[in-house]
Amino acid sequence: MLKNINYNKILFFDIETAPLTYDFKDLDERGQGLWERKTRFIQEREGLNAEEVYEKAGIYAEFGKVICISMGFVLQKDGETQIRLKSIAYEDEATLLQEFIDLLNSYYASPDFLFCAHNGKEFDIPFLCRRILINGKKMPNMLNISGKKPWEIKHLDTMELWKFGDFKNYTSLDLLTYVFNISTPKDDMDGSQVAKVFYEDKDLDRIIQYCEKDVVATIQLFRKYQGESLIDEEFIQIA
Questions:
Q1: Which residues pair with 16 in a beta bridge?
Q2: What is the pLDDT of residue 108?
Q3: d(CA 28, CA 16)
């Protein structure tokens, strides 16, 4: 699908997000009003009120925050193709984002590097960029796409690659892992449970594991697109 791709230059990643407050009632009066207006269409479509649709707050950068970023690197070691995983997760979003920015600026400053995520162009990257600005951080070059021409933006998206020009089509990572016979990343939890696990269970480790499974699934899916074999689980390591 993509010729002469250099896996050493691709940073595969996924993010997990949660609402800024777990309960709608914890928003101040202005915030509640803005949420009501922001989600009016969803309320009308689903026959719910603003409080009832607040469980979706984590997908909106204005009302949600990043709680985990997992990254995957494909490398050759001892003649074997391996996946190396690294995750950054904190309750404090500002700390998480700064560590991620420092990582990008230190190791991925070269214009040769590519980002790759599933639905990353529509969700992960815009969400990250918005939260970086909200937190008063300086945008790393790898994410600073303002004013760039489409061919200058070094972002790959496994969902976009699957569309083949069918831009009305949305295909989940879970469905594609099923189609390509890849181990599902949704065997323990799904995105709708992240807020509960974060706020009630306070189990960041479980969220990290879930996020890392999505990264591995994205890498395996990308390899399938390239007509390559899957990487054995024994060669998947946490950095």
A1: 68
A2: 78
A3: 24
124-133 mean pLDDT: 96
Ramachandran bin of 182, using left for φ above 0, alpha for ψ from -120 to 50, beta for the remaining angles: beta
In whole angstroms, give the CA distance from residue 17 to residue 134: 15
Which of these ranges, 28-32, 71-75, 107-111, 173-177, has the smallest mean pLDDT? 107-111
Strand locations in 102-154, DSSP E?
Answer: 114-117
CATH level 3 topology of 7-20+63-238: Nucleotidyltransferase; domain 5 (3.30.420)
Residue 29 and residue 63: Cα distance in Å, rounded?
14
- Residue 225 scores a pLDDT above 90: yes
Q: Give the DSSP per-residue string, 37-83.
A: HHTHHHHHHHT--TTTTGGGGGGSTTTEEEEEEEEEEEEEETTEEEE
Which amino acid belongs to residue 29? E
Structural domain spans, the chain:
7-20+63-238
Residue 145 main-chain phi, psi, to 5 deg: -105, 0
What is the rounded (10 degree) CA torsion for 161, 113, 64, 48? 0
Q: What is the mean pLDDT of the chain?
A: 91
Residue with tokens 């395996």: 220
pLDDT tens by residue, 159-200 = 999 998 887 778 999 999 999 999 887 777 888 899 999 999
Give me 33's structure tokens: 């009003």
